[in-house]
C-alpha cells in the first residue's frame, strides 16, 4: 500500500521550491497560532472515521506527536532531513515524495491532512487529483492555508501594497473577499472550494485559527496595549464564532469528503 523511502538530500533551494515544504511551528510563547493550528487539526482528525491517514508534508512530525496511536498516521515530506527527525515520532511509515506524486495505491487511505502546504505548490490541482486518487470513497481531506487577516486587509487598504504571509515562498494565499489592484496571488475561499469540488471533494466543515487586528496609529495608538488581551488564545477563539470577523483568520481550515460518483 505504501513504501518507506529515503533518497538523496535535496538542496535548500530545491526544498523551498518543491511542493510540500513546511517548517515546524515556533514555540507557543513566541507565536501561538501555528501550534494552535496543528492542535485543531489533530482534534478534527481524531474525531473522524478511518484509521489510515497521510500527513502530506509532515515536517518533523508535530502532528503525529499529538495524534499518537489514535490513528495510523503515515508521514510524507520532500525534505530528507526533516523525515529523519519525523522517524522519532509515532508515524506508522514515512516516505520521501512530492504531494503531486504520491507513492500510494489507489483508494488506500482513509484521509489526508495537508497543513500549510498547498500555498507552496504551483500545480495545486495536480496535488488534489493525487489526494483524490489515494483516498478511499467517502474519505476525508483536511486542508489549511494562510489567509488575509483584518490587519493585512487594513494595511493593504491603507498603503495600496500587498501584504503576504510569505512573499518569497508562497505562490498563493487565501482571502475571504476579492482583492483588486494587487498582484494576482490572492485566491478567494470560494476559489479553493471550487478547486476541491473539481477534484471530487465536497466541503463539510470550515473554520480558522488566529484573528489579527489592525495596528492603530495616532490618537488610537493606546489600543495597541489591548492587543495582548485580544490575542490570548481563549479570547481569540471567540472571534472565530462572530459573523464577519470569522472570515479573516490567519489560517483557513477546510474539511472535505471525497464523494462517490
Task: Report on the architecture of this protein.
It is built from nine helices and nine strands. The strands form two sheets. It has a seven-stranded mixed sheet, sandwiched between helices. The protein has a two-stranded parallel ribbon with strand order 6-7. The chain has a single domain, classed as Rossmann fold (3-Layer(aba) Sandwich), CATH 3.40.50.150. It is globular, with a radius of gyration of 18 Å. The protein is of the alpha/beta class and 261 residues long. β2 (72-77), α4 (80-86) and β3 (93-96) form a beta-alpha-beta unit.
Characteristic key phrases:
single chain, Rossmann fold, 9 strands, 22% strand, 9 helices, alpha/beta
Amino acid at each position: 500500500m505504501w513504501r518507506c523511502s529515503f533518497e538523496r538530500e535535496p538542496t535548500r533551494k530545491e526544498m523551498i521550491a518543491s511542493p510540500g515544504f513546511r517548517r515546524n511551528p515556533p514555540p507557543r510563547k513566541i507565536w501561538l497560532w501555528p501550534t494552535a493550528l496543528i492542535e485543531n487539526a489533530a482534534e478534527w482528525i481524531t474525531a473522524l472515521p478511518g484509521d489510515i491517514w497521510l500527513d502530506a508534508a509532515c515536517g518533523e512530525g508535530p502532528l503525529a506527536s499529538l495524534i499518537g496511536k489514535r490513528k495510523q498516521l503515515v508521514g510524507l515530506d520532500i525534505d530528507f532531513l526533516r523525515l529523519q527527525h519525523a522517524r522519532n515520532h509515532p508515524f506508522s511509515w514515512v516516505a520521501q515524495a512530492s504531494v503531486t506524486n504520491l507513492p500510494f495505491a489507489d483508494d488506500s487511505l482513509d484521509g489526508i491532512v495537508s497543513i500549510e502546504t498547498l500555498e507552496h505548490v504551483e500545480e495545486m490541482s495536480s496535488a488534489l487529483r493525487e489526494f483524490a486518487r489515494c483516498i478511499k470513497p467517502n474519505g476525508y481531506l483536511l486542508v489549511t492555508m494562510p489567509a488575509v487577516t483584518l490587519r493585512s486587509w487594513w494595511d493593504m487598504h491603507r498603503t495600496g501594497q500587498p501584504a503576504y504571509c510569505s512573499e518569497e515562498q508562497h505562490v498563493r494565499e487565501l482571502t475571504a473577499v476579492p482583492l483588486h489592484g494587487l498582484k494576482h496571488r490572492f485566491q478567494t475561499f470560494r476559489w479553493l472550494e471550487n478547486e476541491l469540488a473539481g477534484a471530487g471533494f465536497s466541503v463539510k466543515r470550515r473554520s480558522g485559527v488566529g484573528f489579527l487586528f489592525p495596528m492603530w496609529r495616532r490618537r488610537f495608538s493606546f489600543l495597541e496595549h489591548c492587543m495582548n488581551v485580544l490575542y490570548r488564545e481563549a479570547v481569540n477563539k471567540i472571534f472565530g464564532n462572530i459573523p464577519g470577523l470569522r472570515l479573516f483568520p490567519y489560517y483557513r481550515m477546510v474539511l472535505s469528503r471525497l464523494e462517490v460518483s
